[in-house]
Amino acid sequence: MAELTPEEFLDTVLVPEKKSDHICWQCRSLKPVLKGSKFPPADIIGWCMKIHWPDYWCVADFNVIKKCYAFDARKK
Ligand code: SF4
Description:
about 80 residues; three-stranded antiparallel β-sheet; 1 helix; binds iron/sulfur cluster
């Protein structure tokens, strides 16, 4: 059995609710809305933990981010 990195393991248990073209999906700073979650507003894909730190910034699904000055690529 292949060993997973901590990030790869989290990807197997923290399944996002949505899919979109945001660059945020490849960024370490996105905290996605998880599948089956009832709490968050329906129009967000998740929260950015970097922009506006120490507060979280809601990433809307209708405002697709293609480029970001604070992008921090996930290692794969
Ligand atoms: S830093 Fe930029 S690319 Fe990364 S999650 Fe935040 S808004 Fe998205």
